[in-house]
Amino acid sequence: MQEEARNQSEVAEDSYSRIKRLIKRDLNASLIAGGIAGAVSRTVVSPFERAKILLQLQGPESQKAYRGMFSTIWKMYLDEGWRGWFRGNTLNCVRIIPYSAVQFAVFEEVKVVLKKMNFNEKIGVDGADRLVAGSAGGIVSVAVTYPLDLVRARITVQTASLNLLNKGKMVKPPGVWETLRDVVAKEGGFSALYRGIVPTTLGVAPYVAINFALYEKLRDMMKYSSQDYSNPGWKLAAGAFSSFVGGVLIYPLDLLRKRYQVASMAGGELGFQYRSVTHALITIFQKEGFFGAYKGLTANLYKIVPSMAVSWLCYDSLREAIAAW
């Protein structure tokens, strides 16, 4: 009897060891830490994310129902209650978990590949390598999760439009599967789920490259500095600064991404009809002015700055915890 119990204990311990080794592998650790970090950070800033989208999707001829980030958040509360702040967040988390996991994992793996290509392990990775790795992470993560991003943008604007039409009365928002089915059935088949992926990739890839490369540069400076940067607040500050810089530089392409995603809604009544990325940018600057290309920027910064600060802190902390396990 004791022998049997001992065997069961050894089997359980062996299983635990295998699971532990599996989790501690670099790729798996990056996937797990990146996924959790993405979900936590996006939930924290969900109200700002939805406000940003609503501000972005106001065309030059709109009634300007939304006038500023905080007033938009307050209007969402008045129209839809506190749940309006998190409308689409479940879908956003479903999207962001694989998106963030893939982004961080590809970034780390590409850095390893580039380091090996240097033919000298002591050289490590430099800023150019990090930019390349960040771009690769951005491209792959977009390709994996783009249909969910498109559906989330559709649900956000449809829900807001329904509430405006019904003068603020609560209405049932469209569902994920219903939206997916409508896009495929009415807008050109499966390929319609990837409408706008080119401007999305053009925006995401350089943003991730700048954000990741700048953050790691700042982290290295803190790591090898003679001053004490052990307080987690310094990592939050580094993540916030890197996302701010990347967000401002790349923002017009982020606005363009959202408009491409909703261009076919309501038969094109939203007024966003562009022949190409170049035509779209020229049209926006001509019809809406320079600041038209930065519509919703404040809301975007309120979203991405704390989001990436929290994301980087969670990611680094989880990677360190897994490594020390």
TrEMBL record:
InterPro entries: MCP (IPR002067), MCP_dom_sf (IPR023395), MCP_transmembrane (IPR018108). Keywords: Membrane, Mitochondrion, Mitochondrion inner membrane, Repeat, Transmembrane, Transmembrane helix, Transport. One of its GO terms (cellular component) is mitochondrial inner membrane. PROSITE patterns: SOLCAR. The chain crosses the membrane at residues 192-214, 234-253. Solcar repeats lie at residues 25-113, 125-221, 230-321. It is found in: Mitochondrion inner membrane. It is a multi-pass membrane protein. GO terms for biological process: transmembrane transport. SUPFAM superfamilies: Mitochondrial carrier. PANTHER family: SOLUTE CARRIER FAMILY 25 (PTHR24089). Belongs to the mitochondrial carrier (TC 2.A.29) family. This is Mitochondrial carrier protein. It comes from Australozyma saopauloensis.
